[in-house]
Amino acid sequence: ACAVAGLWNCVTINPLNIAAGVWMMLNAFVLFLCEAPFCCQFIEFANAVSARADKLRPWQKAAFYCGMAVFPVMLSLTLTTLFGNAIAFATGVLYGLSALGKKGDAISYARIHQQQKQMDEEKLTGALEGQA
User: How many angstroms separate the most distant Cα atoms in the chain?
Assistant: First the structure.
């Protein structure tokens, strides 16, 4: 979607639209190299780029992908750039969510809340007994 929208964005005489379109096609190429190197078997360095991208932490990938997707939108704010970069930005958001970690279950949170409540009650009763 990013490459097609980038190509469509290049069919204009506005230099900012052309720059945004070229950047979007570059984004699509980088995403293919990092996320799906089997699609780029004809490129010799595809596996090396993919291996290096796999070593990055999820929050680093999130910042990289979201940054790549925001730049063309800042160059030329059109529907084509917004929709074209939505998938790249969504990829970054998903990596960001994975960096946050797993969601805890409700039972463990309820236990923690109950223990905190008991400790607060014990502190309050201890303070009241100390005053009396």
Answer: 84
